[in-house]
Amino acid sequence: MQFDDDAPLDPSQVEDARATRPRPRGGGMPGGCMVPLGRRGGCLTLALAVAGLLLFGIVPSPFEGDESGRQDGEQRDGQTPSGPPALSPSRSGNLAERCRTGADADQSEDCRIVGTVNSIQSYWRDEFGRQGQMVYRPARTVLFSRTVSTGCGTANSAVGPFYCPPDRKVYLDLTFFDALQRDYGAEGGPFAQAYVVAHEYGHHVQNLLGTMERLGGAGLPGAGSASVRLELQADCYAGVWARNAVRTGFYQEPFSKADIHQALSAAAAVGDDSIQRRSQGRVNPDAFTHGTSRQRAKWFSRGYESGRPRQCDTFSGDI
Predict the structure, then answer these.
(1) pLDDT tens-digit profile, the chain (319 residues)
(2) Are 163 and 169 a contacting pair, CB within 8 Å?
(3) Closest Cα to residue 307, out of 126, 73, 51, 154?
């Protein structure tokens, strides 16, 4: 995973909140996202650390020309904004000084996250443009330490990386990547990190497509549940980006087999069955929310092998 040394980075897409201490924003579930999940609420996590957290159900129509997939903020008379809105200035002054080019991304974990976010959003902006249905609206990634105040309430590092639909931000404590190796048995590595970030931006894409808006409420867990299918689609979207990442201009060459293996190792490590087996010594499919290790690796691979979002329909047939 080698960045193009001359590729210009945009650190305004990443906010560094690690020096701030959030004030609580309402009550909720201990150790997790602090609002009940339901229509337009809650947060979507890569590794579920809070038992009983309920996720959304879904009706699929990704990139299929379904007008009901129109994103929030678009005019309802069919008019589309003339261009993507610019991100407002963020508090990432230090990142702006340190993360200027791809060469910086190869030397610094913080800058690697910036470069990864830039590439992911560049791909989805172009993909939305090719479909001609809507304008991609960028989402900022917030780097935090221990706890963070979000549009979903106050969350802590125990929930792992997550996307909050109400404020359209990805939240990431970089210590998660150490835990991914130490506690979950993943191989680790730079591309494992990229997979995690791309998965969360997959949720942002689902949000923009209107996937979440069409929900009837909180989904129930279970092996074939809507919440599992939602997470697997985000894995597939991560694979789609990986196939097309070099076209964004941020990477020197396509990802290697070793890079993809890091992603597959991370995907398998955070499968419901793997997490349950490690935490409680047994597997309970009725409590699944993210999919098994095999399923997560399968859907990332499907996205990567096809390179096409339309191949990420996890809601039809078996998974």
Answers:
(1) 999 999 999 999 999 999 765 554 443 322 333 333 333 445 665 543 332 222 222 222 333 333 333 333 333 333 333 444 455 444 445 999 999 999 999 999 999 999 999 999 999 999 999 988 689 999 999 999 999 999 999 999 998 999 999 999 999 999 999 999 998 899 999 999 999 999 999 999 999 998 777 654 446 899 999 889 999 999 999 999 999 999 999 999 999 999 999 999 999 999 999 999 999 999 999 999 999 999 999 999 999 999 999 999 998 889 9
(2) yes
(3) 126
